Amino acid sequence: MPGNKRNTTKKKSAQRTNRLNTEFQQLSLSNVTEKTSEDDLLPHSNKYRIAYSDRYGRYLLAKRDLSAGELLIVEKALVVAPCASGEPVCLGCYKPVTLTTSQYRCPNCKWPLCNEQCVGIHQSYGHTAYECELLQRENTGQRLHTITPADKIKNLYELIAIVRILLMKLHDTDQYKRIQLMESHVEMRKEQYSDLWQYYEENIVQELRENWHLSNDFTAEEIHIVCGILDVNCFEIGQNSAKARALYPGAFLLAHDCCPNTAHTDDPETYEISLRVSRNIKKNESITLSYAYTLQGTLKRRDFIQKSKLFWCCCQRCTDPYELGTDCSALVCSFCQKGLLRSSNPLAQDAEWRCDKCDFIMNSQEVLKLLDKLNNVLDSIDVHDVQGLENFMKRYAALLGSNHYLLLYVKYTLCQIYGRIEGYLISDMSFEDLKLKEKYCREFLQIADILQPGLTKLRGLIMYELHAPIMMISQCLWRQHLITRKEFNKRLREVTELLKKSSLILRMEPKGSNDYQMSLAAEEGLKQLENNSNKETKNKMK
Ligand SMILES: C[S@@+](CC[C@H](N)C(=O)[O-])C[C@H]1O[C@@H](n2cnc3c(N)ncnc32)[C@H](O)[C@@H]1O
User: Fold this and answer.
1) Where would a tag sit more exposed on the chain, N or C end, judged by fewer CB atoms within 10 A?
2) Where do the SET domain residues begin and end (predicted)?
3) Centre of ligand 1 from the C-alpha of residue 256, in Å
4) What is the best residue among 33, 35, 59, 185 to mutate for testing ligand 1's pocket, by most ligand atoms within 8 Å of CB?
């Protein structure tokens, strides 16, 4: 694949950024002082310790070498609540609901719930009696069903997490105190982010203190702090169509990196988080996770991190215009149509983008405009619309580098639906379509190997997807005597390897999740392969 072949200049660039990054890490490590008692936040561990640097604040450092797959943290949530995106969900279990009259609603507060048997009713991680009483008192359930603009509905859902934490101040002070140990960046928000501050002041603080009559219980500052804590520390969680956000007592301490060394998953029933080492970590290396979607380009990723977590990421990937060799932000030069455009300085959001073959330059605003436009086009395509997704690939290949993150997203989506939806079931797929699924899976896996290396769910899922077309294609070629026995066996060995790795990775996902189910399917596939091979040996011996 052209985009993945790194020429010497790119290699030099990667080496340069590697060196810079090591120097940066040494610098920040030399600043380390112990500030917080570990016992306040996390139980004692022989795997990590809490360190402090001026740059990261508190963060976790490896106490010893850690191996991929090691479990680091398993803990219960301090609070679980609907996401700030405002999509209507059940207040008990976070599965999608509608705001139509046929939707089941809580008989008291009238907020939609999935049904009267929802497991989250009267649970600390769901719809509690205290919350129900407050929502009922303020008649918010009725309002939710009568207000029209989508942003007002969003505001009401956004308030739930904030209200749940504030109610802890009155009913669960220990839990409230633990949450108060988290960073809110409240001063920075007030002084340097006036738009953000104003948004919360009008939509949350005034709403709760004036319209919800909570001014005697909570000061404006207390509410702003809770808003900040949620923005900075919450995890987006949810399995099997549920979507929620949650705060965890220790996991929030991990520093961010756009190519992290841990992976995490949440239990669909208990919302417990499990954080594992995804690739080997050296003693004294910082333990990191990604606060942003890793399959996004640097310009957008850094912008997201800065707006939500209030810092500019300067990790190795952000520093490198080639994004660790993936080149997943590069655009095709619209002038010479031969070269690729990349940021001349990825750590400066407004740096120009330059072509590597001609003098063409694009300013970063134009790049952002183009990315937003294409993103909107992509958003308008249904994720099951094979034709629509394929057309997007064809249409925008002239603008986007072959590994561009928007194309990667399309490839990933296609890999998942080829073989699964009507008209594209694996047994009905044409040889060409099977080849295409194999190609996209391989291309995607090459990038995932760099951006989410090691034991990560993304790799596990795509390896599972990849095994099927290789198997089908090999059988077809073998039946038609187009490949030798040796070649067929080689391909079977690859299929076996893929299934083994995929099952190893996905077995770490919580039981009851779709991903765990896939690990079982991978194991089943392995058994079948073994049975077939045993049968063949027996036949040969006859
Ligand atoms: C979820 S908190 C992590 C814990 C936090 N350091 C503390 O002391 O509470 C996220 C905050 O940590 C800091 N941080 C985390 N990763 C960072 C990074 N890679 N570069 C700079 N600051 C980082 C930022 O202040 C960010 O808003």
Assistant:
1) C
2) 46-292
3) 7
4) 59
Q: Which of 28, 56, 317 to mutate to test the pocket of ligand 1 (most atoms within 8 A of CB)?
A: 56
Mark residue 269 as left, alpha or beta (left: phi above 0; alpha: psi -120 to 50; beta: remaining): alpha
- 3-state secondary structure string across 56-124: CEEEEEECCCECCCCEEEEECCCEEECCCCCCCECCCCCCECCCCCCCCECCCCCCECCCCCCCCECCC
pLDDT digit string, tens, across residues 293-315 = 999 999 999 999 999 999 999 99
Residue 192 tokens, joined: 């340097």
Give the closest residue to 286 by CA, choosing from 44, 94, 25. Answer: 25
Q: Counting atoms of ligand 1 from 1, which one is nearest the CA of 315?
A: 19
Ligand 1 midpoint to CA 204 (Å): 24
Residue with CA at minimum distance from ligand 1 atom 27: 309
What residues does each domain of the chain span?
78-247, 300-417, 420-541
With the most atoms of ligand 1 within 8 angstroms of its CB, the residue from 256, 286, 289, 304 to mutate is 256
pTM value is 0.89
Hey, whose CA ends up nearest to atom 8 of ligand 1? 58
The residue whose CA is least distant from atom 1 of ligand 1 is 233
Q: How far is the CA of 59 from the centre of ligand 1 (A)?
A: 7
Closest atom of ligand 1 relative to the 36 alpha carbon: 8
Instruction: Give residues with Cβ within 8 angstroms of 42, minimum separation 6.
Output: 48, 50, 73, 249, 250, 253
Residue 358 to residue 381: CA distance in whole angstroms: 34
Q: Report yes or no for ipTM above 0.90.
A: yes
pLDDT in tens, the chain (542 residues): 222 222 333 333 333 233 323 333 333 333 344 444 446 788 889 999 999 999 999 999 999 999 999 999 999 999 999 999 889 999 999 999 999 999 999 999 999 999 999 999 999 999 999 999 999 998 898 888 887 677 788 889 999 999 999 999 999 999 999 999 999 999 999 999 999 999 999 999 999 999 999 999 999 999 999 999 999 999 999 988 999 999 999 999 999 999 999 999 999 999 999 999 999 999 999 999 999 999 999 999 999 999 999 999 999 999 999 999 999 999 999 999 999 999 999 999 999 999 999 999 999 999 999 999 999 999 999 999 999 999 999 999 999 999 999 999 999 999 999 988 888 888 888 999 999 999 999 999 999 999 999 999 999 999 999 999 999 999 999 999 999 999 999 999 999 999 999 999 999 999 989 999 999 999 999 999 988 877 777 777 66
> Strand order in 340-343's β-sheet?
331-332, 340-343, 353-355, 361-362
Give dist(CA 444, CA 438) in Å, integer: 10
Nearest to 111 by CA among 131, 83, 85: 131
In the chain, DSSP finds a helix count (H) and a strand count (E) of 19, 14
| pLDDT value, residue 536 | 75
CB 81 within 8 A of CB 164: yes
